[in-house]
Amino acid sequence: MTFATTALAMLIGGLAPGGTGPAQDVEMLSSGATAQWRMFSESDSSTYLVDMASIVRNGDDASIRVARVSKRLGPGEYRHTVDQFGVRCGAGETRVETSSDIADDGVTADTFAADEPWTPAPANSFDGSVKEMACGEKEPSRAPFDSVRAWIEAGRP
């Protein structure tokens, strides 16, 4: 099984809704570990969180989940996108391997393969930050949340 296949299997394994309460979908790791979503970047329109508990390393390759949350959501809106990034640590390259649209209720609306090529992840760039976190070179200083929804409900700290 290739690294990409393993990472995709782990992502898909986490798509089943959780037990009682709101559906967990990609918020829950297939290992059963609690997610650790931390804000690490923002643009004019979106805030980006990384799930530090989602990192899987296989030799020089890694995978990591990144959530993209619109800054234009109203009260009670929780929809967001979770991208599964592949990372080549030594080569300094990243790519989005899958992307999942998460509805307001936490259920995965769609997941699709991104089929993006590997691209350089320059230092001091968004992809550079993703690479550094996936490869264990840095970690966001923000407090972790067990779901993107919990982060939104906490006022997006």
Topology:
Layout: H1 3-13, E1 37-42, E2 46-58, E3 61-70, E4 80-88, E5 93-102, E6 108-113, E7 119-120, H2 126-134, H3 148-153
Antiparallel strand pairs: 1-2, 2-3, 3-4, 4-5, 5-6, 5-7
Q: What do these coordinates show?
A:
The protein is of the alpha+beta class. It has helices at residues 3-13, 126-134, 148-153, and strands spanning 37-42, 46-58, 61-70, 80-88, 93-102, 108-113, 119-120. β1 and β2 form a beta hairpin. It contains 3 helices and 7 strands. The protein has a single domain (3-153), classed as Lipocalin. It is 17% helix and 36% strand. The chain is globular and about 40 Å long.
| Shape type | globular
The CATH architecture category equals Beta Barrel
Alpha-beta classification: alpha+beta
What is the terminal-to-terminal distance?
Answer: 39 Å
Gyration radius, rounded: 15 Å
Q: Major β-sheet, in short?
A: 7 strands, antiparallel
Whole-number total of structural domains = 1
Q: Helix tally?
A: 3
The top level CATH class name: Mainly Beta
Mean pLDDT: 84
The gist of it:
The protein is an alpha+beta fold and 157 residues long. The chain contains 3 helices and 7 strands. Strands 1, 2, 3, 4, 5, 6 and 7 form a 7-stranded antiparallel beta sheet that branches.
For the structure shown, list the relevant keywords:
single chain; 157 residues; alpha+beta; Lipocalin; seven-stranded antiparallel sheet; 3 helices; 36% strand; globular; disordered N terminus
